[in-house]
Amino acid sequence: MVRKLIDSLRRITGDEAIDDGLIKHITDRLGHDRRYAIDATRIRHELSWRPEVDFESGIEQTIRWYLERSDWVDRVISGEYQRFYDQNYSGR
Fold it and tell me: Pick from 57, 61, 41: which is nearest to 49 by CA?
Protein backbone atom coordinates (compact mmCIF):
# COMPACT_ATOMS: atom_id res chain seq x y z
CA MET A 1 0.00 0.00 0.00
CA VAL A 2 2.85 2.40 0.79
CA ARG A 3 4.35 1.79 -2.63
CA LYS A 4 1.01 2.53 -4.29
CA LEU A 5 0.84 5.80 -2.36
CA ILE A 6 4.39 6.72 -3.38
CA ASP A 7 3.69 5.86 -7.03
CA SER A 8 0.52 7.98 -6.99
CA LEU A 9 2.28 10.92 -5.33
CA ARG A 10 5.14 10.80 -7.87
CA ARG A 11 2.72 10.59 -10.80
CA ILE A 12 0.48 13.42 -9.57
CA THR A 13 3.28 15.79 -8.57
CA GLY A 14 5.82 14.82 -11.23
CA ASP A 15 8.45 14.81 -8.47
CA GLU A 16 10.93 12.01 -9.29
CA ALA A 17 12.47 12.37 -5.80
CA ILE A 18 9.34 10.71 -4.42
CA ASP A 19 10.44 7.07 -4.51
CA ASP A 20 10.84 3.95 -2.38
CA GLY A 21 13.85 5.56 -0.69
CA LEU A 22 11.35 7.52 1.42
CA ILE A 23 10.19 4.31 3.11
CA LYS A 24 11.65 3.98 6.61
CA HIS A 25 11.38 0.59 8.27
CA ILE A 26 10.92 0.56 12.02
CA THR A 27 10.92 -2.13 14.64
CA ASP A 28 7.37 -3.30 14.99
CA ARG A 29 5.43 -3.20 18.23
CA LEU A 30 5.18 -6.50 20.07
CA GLY A 31 1.96 -8.26 19.17
CA HIS A 32 1.32 -5.94 16.25
CA ASP A 33 -0.56 -7.58 13.40
CA ARG A 34 1.34 -7.84 10.14
CA ARG A 35 -1.80 -7.36 8.07
CA TYR A 36 -5.21 -5.81 8.45
CA ALA A 37 -8.13 -6.71 6.25
CA ILE A 38 -11.76 -5.73 6.17
CA ASP A 39 -14.56 -8.07 5.23
CA ALA A 40 -17.29 -5.77 3.95
CA THR A 41 -19.77 -8.60 3.33
CA ARG A 42 -22.03 -7.70 6.23
CA ILE A 43 -22.24 -3.99 5.45
CA ARG A 44 -23.00 -4.81 1.80
CA HIS A 45 -25.76 -7.28 2.69
CA GLU A 46 -27.37 -5.50 5.63
CA LEU A 47 -27.09 -1.90 4.43
CA SER A 48 -26.62 -2.38 0.68
CA TRP A 49 -23.52 -0.24 0.97
CA ARG A 50 -21.04 -0.06 -1.87
CA PRO A 51 -18.00 2.21 -2.10
CA GLU A 52 -18.48 5.16 -4.42
CA VAL A 53 -14.87 5.10 -5.65
CA ASP A 54 -12.29 2.37 -5.97
CA PHE A 55 -9.15 2.36 -3.84
CA GLU A 56 -6.83 3.88 -6.44
CA SER A 57 -9.25 6.72 -7.24
CA GLY A 58 -9.79 7.38 -3.54
CA ILE A 59 -6.05 7.60 -2.87
CA GLU A 60 -5.62 9.98 -5.81
CA GLN A 61 -8.51 12.18 -4.61
CA THR A 62 -7.03 12.24 -1.10
CA ILE A 63 -3.58 13.24 -2.39
CA ARG A 64 -5.06 16.01 -4.52
CA TRP A 65 -7.13 17.26 -1.55
CA TYR A 66 -3.99 17.69 0.56
CA LEU A 67 -1.98 19.22 -2.30
CA GLU A 68 -4.74 21.77 -2.95
CA ARG A 69 -4.79 22.74 0.74
CA SER A 70 -1.09 23.21 1.44
CA ASP A 71 -1.82 26.25 3.63
CA TRP A 72 -3.97 24.07 5.90
CA VAL A 73 -1.32 21.33 5.95
CA ASP A 74 1.36 23.90 6.88
CA ARG A 75 -0.77 25.11 9.81
CA VAL A 76 -1.23 21.55 11.04
CA ILE A 77 2.49 20.77 10.75
CA SER A 78 3.45 24.00 12.51
CA GLY A 79 1.15 23.27 15.44
CA GLU A 80 -0.93 26.40 14.83
CA TYR A 81 -4.10 24.32 15.04
CA GLN A 82 -3.17 23.37 18.61
CA ARG A 83 -3.16 27.04 19.68
CA PHE A 84 -6.58 27.51 18.08
CA TYR A 85 -7.86 24.39 19.82
CA ASP A 86 -6.47 25.50 23.19
CA GLN A 87 -8.00 28.98 22.85
CA ASN A 88 -11.42 27.75 21.78
CA TYR A 89 -11.89 24.40 23.45
CA SER A 90 -9.73 24.11 26.54
CA GLY A 91 -11.62 23.94 29.80
CA ARG A 92 -14.79 22.61 28.24
Answer: 41
